[in-house]
């Protein structure tokens, strides 16, 4: 279980997160939605320790994540970055096995390679891809490799940052379905940030909407369609008119 309590973060006079409170149960898939610039990435970066919050606490299984425990926390999760963010100079299998080749989860090279090939198979890629380099792959294949890397160390928690950015709608659907099935079979807790509604419907058990620095609405994915919250309704239907003001 991940708990976030009273999280605040400002940059200068700009309050990005004002008071974020969030609980994600073990095995639950939560999707955080919200318009551009609402602080979704800042929230993720606070959880990862890439940005230091001004106030608030983040707990994993009841234990506060602090500087001292962050490494242990990070060892228990996987991350699929926006745009896959593969290392160009490493082969596909070395990208997938990145955390198995160094650090606390280090394995012998042959074992790491075997795990990488197994994870590639899980995301629909054959062993012939293992020795290619990222530049030789299509965008959809790169996402699959990024997904294989995220699950390589069998994480308890997986973060997905805009998992469908840059993909055509069909490939986005394939990646969404793959994420859903992998998260379910691993029993992992998943947190996804996105503004792609097709991802929300495919991946989410529950949905939280970030707006003006707070989680303005939270519920399960079925409730999202029936809520009378005008902010949620405007967002899910992509309407220009409504309480959310956009720059035009
Ligand atoms: N390091 C930083 N220094 C100053 N301001 C920042 C920093 N990081 C983020 N911000 C500001 O915080 C706000 C929220 O940014 P964030 O990237 O979290 O938005 P987002 O919801 O992820 O948007 P998008 O969907 O467009 O990626 C923005 O106004 C941004 O300019």
TrEMBL record:
<protein>
    <submittedName>
        <fullName>ATP-binding cassette domain-containing protein</fullName>
    </submittedName>
</protein>
<keyword id="KW-0547">Nucleotide-binding</keyword>
<feature type="domain" description="ABC transporter">
    <location>
        <begin position="2"/>
        <end position="237"/>
    </location>
</feature>
<dbReference type="InterPro" id="IPR003593">
    <property type="entry name" value="AAA+_ATPase"/>
</dbReference>
<dbReference type="Pfam" id="PF00005">
    <property type="entry name" value="ABC_tran"/>
</dbReference>
<dbReference type="GO" id="GO:0016887">
    <property type="term" value="F:ATP hydrolysis activity"/>
</dbReference>
<keyword id="KW-0813">Transport</keyword>
<dbReference type="GO" id="GO:0005524">
    <property type="term" value="F:ATP binding"/>
</dbReference>
<dbReference type="InterPro" id="IPR017871">
    <property type="entry name" value="ABC_transporter-like_CS"/>
</dbReference>
<keyword id="KW-0067">ATP-binding</keyword>
<dbReference type="InterPro" id="IPR027417">
    <property type="entry name" value="P-loop_NTPase"/>
</dbReference>
<dbReference type="InterPro" id="IPR003439">
    <property type="entry name" value="ABC_transporter-like_ATP-bd"/>
</dbReference>
């Amino acid at each position: 279980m991940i708990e976030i309590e009273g999280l605040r973060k400002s940059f200068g006079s700009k309050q990005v997160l004002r008071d974020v409170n969030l609980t994600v149960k073990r095995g639950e898939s939560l999707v955080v939605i919200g318009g551009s610039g609402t602080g979704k990435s800042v929230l993720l970066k606070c959880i990862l320790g890439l940005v230091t919050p001004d106030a608030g606490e983040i707990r994993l299984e009841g234990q506060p994540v602090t500087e001292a425990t962050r490494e242990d926390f990070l060892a228990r999760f996987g991350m699929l970055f926006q745009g896959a963010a593969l290392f160009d100079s490493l082969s596909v299998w070395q990208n997938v096995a990145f955390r198995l080749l160094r650090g606390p989860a280090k394995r012998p090279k042959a074992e790491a390679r075997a795990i990488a090939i197994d994870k590639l198979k899980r995301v629909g890629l054959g062993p012939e891809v293992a020795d290619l380099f990222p530049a030789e792959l299509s965008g959809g294949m790169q996402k699959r490799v990024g997904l294989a890397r995220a699950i390589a160390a069998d994480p308890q928690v997986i973060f997905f940052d805009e998992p469908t950015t840059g993909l055509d709608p069909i490939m986005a659907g394939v990646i969404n379905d793959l994420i859903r099935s992998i998260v379910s079979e691993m029993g992992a807790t998943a947190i996804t940030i996105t503004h792609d509604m097709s991802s929300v419907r495919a991946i989410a058990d529950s949905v939280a909407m970030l707006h003006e620095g707070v989680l303005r609405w939270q519920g399960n994915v079925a409730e999202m369609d029936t809520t009378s919250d005008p902010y949620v309704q405007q967002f899910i239907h992509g309407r220009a008119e409504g309480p959310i003001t956009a720059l035009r």
